[in-house]
Amino acid sequence: MEGVTTNGIQETTIANGTSASALTSTGIASNLAETAPSQTTVEVEHPLASLDASLLQRNITPSPRTPPQADDPNIVLQNTCTDHMVTVQWTEKNGWGTPKLEPYGPFSIMPTASVFHYATECFEGLKLYRGFDGKLRLFRPNLNCKRFLGSSTRIALPGFDPEEVLKLIVELCATDGPKWLPKEKAGGFLYLRPTMIANDAALGVQRPKAALLYVLLCVFPALDTPSGLKLLASQDDTIRAWPGGFGYAKVGANYGPSLVAQGEARKRNFNQILWLFGENGQVTEAGASNFFVVWKTREGKTQLVTAPLTDRIILDGVTRRSVLELSRARLSNGVSADGLELAPIEIVERHYTMHEVLEAYNEGRLVECFAAGTAFFIAQVALVSWKEQEITVPVKPGYATTIKGWLSGIMYGKEQHDWAVVVEEKGF
Ligand SMILES: *Cc1c(COP(=O)(O)O)cnc(C)c1O
User: Fold this and answer.
1) pLDDT digit string (tens) for 276-296?
2) Which atom, in ligand 1's list, is nearest to the CA of 372?
3) Of the residues 9, 290, 377, 404, which should be mutated to test ligand 1's pocket, given the most ligand atoms within 8 Å of the CB?
4) How confident is the model over 308-346, as pLDDT tens digits?
5) How far is residue 18 from each of residues 23, 41, 57, 245, measured CA to CA in Å?
């Protein structure tokens, strides 16, 4: 398994000497020093109890449920979770408490809880895969755990050692995976949702004094779109994220406000919003996926282009990162695979605009567009609608399908790769 501290999602370890004018980064550094000393070089005299997965208490359900059949309508509704969940309570007084694996069920939370009023919530999304070799695997889960820390501390929730959260995730998968994702379901997956909420019962607008970290495992539909996604470009009255904001964090506050535009897009028969930023129509990401275009430059070079992480308005997707790394490693010199001849590709992370995409389209240089994220995986885009323009893109075997094949090969154990973490199964 990869170390959590290397090759990670946006570095969250903050060194001494953060500038006094940087309120947010200074606040995050001192939060980490108090709540997760292992994640910072700043020292505090009395750090609180750290998150420790080895203390886990297993409280197995007395009433196990039957997993739904493949055609159960509840799967599409994403309302069915496995028998257990993991919970850990944190308080400002005592730090992290005892992690518990317990029956999945409702929480009791006071109506005054911070999360209900001030959006003190963040989450992660990753999948548990049942390989064709019969093994259960997670895909680069260390990156999700590290990003989870970046999100929690961005909204004043406590810090933790990401490796400890990973151990809790693995424990839940090891317990419920064998029954809910049995060996007969090779090629199937469940969806993991690590979440943190502030649950202190007090209305004060302040840094939360109590938080609950929990992990659930949900039965999830395959969101495959063989005919390609249809994207509606965002309009001037909706911006998803902005520099100095929190677009890079997986915090609930980024999603609620986007649902009006998304609902309207669905009504008009689009799958997702393509989020643009600024007067020039800078392309950022698509729904809760990162967005890629493949085009030819006027000089005839083939490029894979995606928005950069530098201004922190897009999410540092694990799928995005994996697409970029695999493309650099395997497509820089071109490839012939499955009867396809793919020209060498240059990988480019930079700002680009809808004007450039439209120009490439009009000049016949637009090769492919695709979205990349855990939920939709790699989904080719068939149409982008922007202002009065309709940009149609061919959906056919090419770069996106090749990269998708490589990634799913790793996830489902067809290719042995250190991005895939095998979960040793326990059951209950
Ligand atoms: C979760 C998410 C992504 C995709 O990230 P992955 O780690 O690849 O699943 C992209 N954009 C947004 C806004 C997201 O919430």
Assistant:
1) 999 999 999 999 999 999 999
2) 8
3) 290
4) 999 999 999 999 999 999 999 999 999 987 789 999 999
5) 9, 12, 38, 19
